[in-house]
Amino acid sequence: MEQELKLQILDPSPVTWEKICKFPLLALGEAPALKLHAVYYDSRDGALRRAKLAYRVRREGKEWVATLKADGQSMGGLHQRPEWNVTVSSSAADLRVFTDPDAAALLAPFLDLALQAILETRFERLESRVDCADGSQIVVALDRGEILASGLCEPILEMELELATGGPAAILEMGAELCAHLPLLPDGESKMFRGLRLAGLIPADAVALGDKAAPLRRHENAGKALSRLLIEQCQQSLTAARQHATGNSPETFHHLRKAVRSLRALLRFCRTLDTDKRLEGVRQELADWFHQQSIRRDHEVLATYWATLAAETGTEAAPLYTWLSAEAEATAAGLGHLAATILQFWALLLRAALHSDEDLQHYAEMHLRRQDRKLTAAGAAAQTPIEFHALRIHIKNWRYVILALGDMWPSKDSKALLKTLSALQKISGAMHDADMAGQHLAGLATSRRHGLAFHAGMLMGYLHAREVRQHKKFSRHWKRLESISRPWS
Predict the structure, then answer these.
(1) Which of 177, 356, 380, 383 could be cross-linked to 222 through a Cys-Cys bond (beta carbons 3.0 to 4.6 Å apart)?
(2) pLDDT at site 252
(3) Which residue ranges traverse the bilayer (predicted)?
(4) Rounded CA gap, 227 and 265, in Å?
């Protein structure tokens, strides 16, 4: 069983490559680079791909090695799948070389396929073996080269941490240390997946998706079930971080914040199961990252509001829109630190799941009712912008937890509840945006930068007028929330 963490190198500069090569933890030393050339095979109609099998023959130094990889799991950069390797005499395709009973059984339906080369990889690899404190051994592979398919090429610039002996927590902990100090992010896409996309054999916008999460069972242990759910949300957050590193747009940033918010909400929900407080540091690190990124979120939202208002009023958008966009971009994304925190969190859960003596249904329903009471009390007391902002956070956290636990009530319809919570979240967000605009734009509106000052004043006035309407909408939806049945009732 292959278990490896793939890390994409975000900065292609020679200086960064040299820094990575010399990073002490990797122990790469002065070993010469190994030249690798791999050919991936499949039938014209993609029969192996449809069966979730990958077959390649790769030249490693003076030897050719045939490799078969079967379906497994790939999420958040951690790849876990069955793998068989056989030394062969040439790069010619021949599925019969795999004599292991399990591999032979998988390949039996495909032995007479007419195979053809579908893509190639050519790269140099620096390799080392690292001994971990827990006794695990990790093979480090630092790769630089290219993927070739259909006359096109795409660069390879990545690191693989493959578990030789021990448990997967060790490679996650090593990955966390590397992401904290080097421009690296976990990457769920294999070289073959990227090559298939380059060859046009899968859609250009295809993304590597992990397996569907195992359904929650009401009577399973609450600690184990919620640990598994937290790991799944760690994986989703890492995938969102990688997508944001690639896209770097308001949309990818919004998706990343939602993923981290959902993870934080579930972590808070599980707080009483963390009896020895070993996750307190993770909780604080995630909160710090989220709050630091709020400045970027605020400026991006204001830029969107202003673009709409400028279009509606025939006003030139550029000066204020440019200023807001520049302010947003000035906030460093901190993706490496975020990835390091999440990988460390994932490793902690693998080493020891949350502890509980209750089943999932009892724990979840008791705490959801408690959150319900707190939410109702906060809604009745909310009067000031600060109180409404706190209420908005309550609504978000409750909604994300209900979404995460939805499998528990398959026969109950929670759509009405979730729809109303979503509406309340959106409305309270718009109310918060008016207050947030005052914080960020008040100084600009009173400055001597006449064009910017006038536009900032326009936007503030628009958002405050909108806030009055949002208060009325909030009251209507809140009354609806009070009357909607809960799926756990």
Answers:
(1) 356
(2) 95
(3) none
(4) 14
Angle among Cα 198, 203, 209 to the nearest 5 degrees reads 100
**Tokens 């051994």 found at:** 137
Is the distance from CB of 140 to CB of 26 less than 8 angstroms?
yes
- Looking up tokens 């690899």 gives 125
- Among residues 5, 11, 330, the alpha carbon closest in space to that of 181 is found at 11
SS3 at position 74: strand
Q: Which of 126, 152, 161, 160 is nearest to 35 (CA)?
A: 126
At residue 489, the 3 state secondary structure works out as coil
Which element (helix H / strand E) includes 427? Answer: helix 415-445
Q: Residues 21-42, buried b or exposed e (16+ Cβ, 10 A)? A: eebeebebeeeebeebbbbbbb
For the chain, give the number of residues: 489
- DSSP code, position 182: S
Q: How many CB atoms lie within 10 A of CB 377?
A: 12
Q: To which H or E segment does residue 196 belong?
A: helix 191-198
* 3-state helix/strand/coil string of 452-467: HHHHHHHHHHHHHHHH
Nearest to 266 by CA among 219, 234, 220: 234
Domain ranges for the chain = 2-211, 223-483
How far apart CA 113 and CA 126 sit, in angstroms, is: 35
Closest CA to 375 of 396, 360, 402: 396
CB atoms within 10 A of CB 122: 15
Closest CA to 425 of 383, 388, 462: 388
DSSP 8-class letter at 273: G
The structure tokens listed for 160 are: 């693989």
What is the fold of 2-211? Hypothetical Protein Pfu-838710-001 (2.40.320)
pLDDT computed for residue 39 by the predictor: 97
Integer Cα distance of 370 and 391 in angstroms = 15
Give the fold, CATH level 3, of 223-483: CHAD domain (1.40.20)
Least confident stretch, 74-83, 116-125, 300-309: 74-83
pTM over 0.85: yes
How many CB atoms lie under 10 A from the CB of residue 416? 14
Residue 467: what pLDDT? 85
Express each pLDDT in 357-400 by its tens digit: 999 999 999 999 999 999 999 988 888 888 888 899 999 999 99
d(CA 68, CA 110): 13
